[in-house]
From TrEMBL:
The keyword Protein biosynthesis does not apply. GO terms for cellular component: NADPH oxidase complex. InterPro entries: EF-hand-dom_pair, EF_Hand_1_Ca_BS, EF_hand_dom, FAD-bd_8, FAD-bd_FR_type, Fe_red_NAD-bd_6, FNR_nucleotide-bd, RBOH/FRE. It comes from the Eukaryota. The lineage of its organism: Eukaryota, Metazoa, Chordata, Craniata, Vertebrata. It comes from Pelodiscus sinensis. This is NADPH oxidase 5. Residues 594-613 are annotated as: Disordered. Residues 39-74, 150-185 form the EF-hand domain. PROSITE patterns: EF_HAND_1 (PS00018), EF_HAND_2 (PS50222), FAD_FR (PS51384). GO terms for biological process: defense response; superoxide anion generation. One of its GO terms (molecular function) is superoxide-generating NAD(P)H oxidase activity.
Length: 753
């Protein structure tokens, strides 16, 4: 830190201290806990005891600054000494600031000697019980739940590794030697929870907006070209219509120009949601030229353009009517607007009346996107019923504009065909949910009998309707089973909104779930359930896993950007939480194809990547990144990931086709003093048992969030081909991942439905 930065930091800490301490200018233990945002009181008490150099029970500003100076400006030995004292639970309370006190007057020098003496007369070593106490607090701080036996294993793994001389205790030098085996920890040894001590960043040279960077234009060239073409087409239509009506005056030119653009945009708005047509086009060359995966984004954009054009179009006509009324005297303005007497319009002079009705309906478009919360039942109903107004809008447009039907005839016919086919397919054969499994994190696993001739690709989604939950509601969900699974299709549904919560609670009912409780049906259900249990690996019958017979309807399947995965060379699958479901289907399909290849060539031993080289699959490497907030979120998908790891058990790490990366955001990072010991112990035990203690997988679960720059740089250096990133998760995380993809010129695809 420079002198200027040091003074600004000092000023910032002083200000934060005063806001926490209050009038007494001292921080007690409870205020200290609140300021550090420490979950487990053990660490707050240990830190507080070490900061409180005079043993007064409170921390003054002087004590805080000296302690923080040591942690921030001190060398590795100073920081390690502090860490050692935290772990040395039975040591007397001591001062960590002796070297700073000894720089001052004689009185403070004497006090420094006393503090230094306390450091040497303590226990000076860490025994297994102390280490176990610290690791138990580390688990609570990182929101990790492990059985007592596993905690003992972690303690022994770390203790045996650090106790070099087998003396039964760990000295400071032994702890230092053990930490040197983890260089990433030594780089930034700090108390990361103290966010209130971090001054705001003041970078005079802020980076340019990402929309003006060459990487953004390179990675979004298809989207930007289409948007440019869309804008030019609207400008051309406006200019042509305006010039055609130039003799009628400027306001008529504006109205007619906007009207011609509305003819195109109102048609284009519906064409962008022709899901079956878009699914078919994804398999053609069109998908390589046009950004079909951005159809939802374009749909929203065109919706706002329609609203803006309609306002200008209506306003121009009103101004023109005012001028006509003033010039001619009759009819009056209200007759122009609210009657058919002026005879304006191609069907009985109804242009004004239909225009007012259209304007009112089109004003609902912003309401659909600005007032909708997907977790609210009322908001979802607002979104659903306002979207049904498109039928009225199209009907009024046919009556309002003499040329609209010419634009609408082809897309309108396709729309009618799509809806007819969808209704026919969804109602043709009655489907049933035959099994349910209530998984951790309120995830409902539905097993639906697969209808005949139902073909889909990995990552596709369907619309689901369950009359027992809501008779008229349809909701989109990604199919989590592989297409090669012939008898059933799987859905994994996270309880996030009103409908999904009702679904979860419905299946929690203790009574048998059957809408048609016939004896023969029940026998068949039991038989099917027992067959399923035999196929499962290490499956156990539980109360939240049972057979049922619930009527349902599906509409689909519909394609998503993940259809491009098998045509990629190096695919990176990024899923956050329940966003893993589209990749569940893809990973299962990969595993099935690999198994089939092995059966065809039992004598050979090609690597996985070589065995999958065919005309449909160009993949050379797959990186699977799964980010979860807590430990339980991993449980529902672990069985499949375990099978994937077993398929590659004989492969060398550098030759593995599939590489998995697990991240748990609630766990503190390795460079946090409250998690160093735990993460070291987890690493040591995982290496010893060849299994991660959190998930049970061979892949080690990493604490915190991914360092995207580091992760993507490593993937770029592997040179496995052109990297394409496929994401499914929250919009906030999608923006972060996309920004980093642009830095490395990776193509980015996000799930939209």
């Amino acid at each position: 830190m420079s002198i200027d930065n040091d003074s600004s930091w000092l000023e910032w800490v002083t200000k934060q201290f005063e806001s926490i301490a209050g009038d007494d200018k001292e921080i007690d233990l409870e205020e200290f806990k609140t300021a550090l945002k420490v979950k487990e009181s053990f660490f707050a008490e240990r830190f507080f005891a070490l900061f409180d150099s005079d043993g007064s029970g409170t921390i003054s500003l002087d004590e805080l600054l000296k302690a923080l100076n040591l942690l921030i400006h001190g060398d590795e030995t100073d920081k390690l000494r502090f860490l050692f004292q935290v772990y040395d639970v039975d040591a007397p309370k001591s001062c960590i600031c002796h070297k700073y006190y000894s720089r001052s007057a004689e009185k403070r020098w004497s006090r420094g000697v006393a503090c230094k003496f306390l450091l040497t007369v303590g226990s000076g070593s860490i025994d297994p019980d102390e280490l176990r106490t610290v690791l138990k607090s580390c688990l609570k701080e990182s929101a990790i739940s492990l059985p007592e036996e596993k905690l003992d294993d972690l303690t022994l793994a770390l203790f045996e590794s650090a106790d070099k001389d087998k003396s039964g205790s760990i000295t400071f030098e032994e702890l230092r030697e053990e930490l040197e085996r983890f260089p990433e920890v030594m780089e930034n040894l700090t108390i990361s929870a103290a966010n209130w001590l971090k001054p705001p960043r003041t970078d005079p040279r802020s980076p340019p907006p990402r929309y003006f960077t060459p990487a953004y234009w390179h990675n979004n060239r298809s989207k930007l070209l289409c948007m440019g073409g869309y804008g030019c087409l609207n400008l051309l239509l406006f200019t042509w219509a305006a010039l055609w009506h130039a003799p009628l005056g400027a306001w008529v030119m504006v109205a007619k120009g906007c009207g011609q653009c509305l003819n195109f945009n109102c048609t284009f708005l519906g064409a962008l949601m022709l899901r079956r047509c878009l699914t078919w086009l994804r398999a053609t060359w069109v998908a390589k030229v046009f950004p079909l995966d951005q159809n939802v984004v374009f749909h929203q954009l065109v919706g706002y353009v329609v609203v803006a054009l309609s306002v200008v179009h209506t306003g121009a006509h009103v101004v023109n009517f005012v001028r006509l009324a003033q010039r001619q005297g009759r009819p009056a303005l209200w007759e122009y607007l609210f009657t058919t007497r002026p005879g304006i319009g191609w069907i009985h002079g109804s242009a004004a009346l239909t225009g007012i009705a259209l304007q009112l309906l089109l004003c609902l478009i912003p309401l659909r996107y600005t007032c909708v919360n997907p977790q609210s039942l009322h908001s979802s109903q607002v979104f659903y019923w306002t979207h049904l107004s498109y039928i009225s809008v199209w009907a009024l447009l046919v009556l309002h504009g003499p040329n609209f039907w010419k634009w609408f005839v082809v897309p309108g016919c396709l729309f009618v065909v799509e809806k007819t086919v969808g209704i026919a397919v969804s109602r043709m054969a009655g489907l049933y949910i035959v099994e349910i499994n209530l998984l951790p994190s309120k995830v409902t696993h539905l097993v639906i009998k697969r209808p005949p001739f139902f073909h889909y690709k990995p990552g596709d989604y369907i619309y689901l309707n369950i009359p027992a939950i809501a008779k008229y509601e349809w909701h989109p969900f990604t199919i989590s089973s592989a297409p090669e699974q012939q008898d059933t299709i799987w859905l994994h549904i996270r309880s996030l909104g009103q409908w999904t919560n009702r679904l979860y609670e419905y299946f929690r009912r203790p009574e048998p779930l059957s809408q048609e409780p016939k004896p023969l049906t029940r026998n068949l259900q039991k038989q099917r359930f027992h067959q399923w249990a035999q196929r499962k690996v290490s499956a156990k019958l539980r109360e939240n896993h049972r057979a049922c017979n619930i009527k349902c309807y599906i509409d689909g399947p519909y394609g998503t950007p993940t259809r491009r995965i098998f045509a990629s060379e190096h695919a990176v699958l990024v899923g956050a939480g329940i966003g893993i479901t589209p990749f569940a289907s893809i990973l299962q399909s990969i595993m099935h194809r690999h198994r089939m290849r092995k059966q065809k060539d039992p004598g050979g031993s090609p690597s996985w990547s070589e065995s999958h080289k065919d005309e449909e699959m160009k993949l050379r490497k797959v990186d699977f990144i799964w980010i979860n907030r807590d430990q339980k979120s991993f449980e529902w998908f672990v069985s499949l990931l375990t099978q994937l790891e077993m398929e590659q058990a004989d492969e060398e790490p550098e030759d593995r086709f599939l590489e998995m990366h697990m991240y748990m955001t609630s766990a503190l990072s390795k460079n946090d003093m409250k998690a160093i010991g735990l993460q070291m112990a987890l690493d040591l035990l995982a290496k010893k048992e060849q299994r991660d203690s959190i998930t049970g997988l061979r892949t080690r679960t990493q604490p915190g969030r991914p360092d995207w720059s580091k992760v993507f740089r490593k993937m770029a250096e592997e040179n496995k081909g052109k990297v394409q990133v496929f994401f499914c998760g929250s919009p906030a995380l999608a923006k972060v991942v996309k920004t980093h993809c642009e830095q490395f010129n990776f193509r980015f695809f996000k799930e939209h439905f």
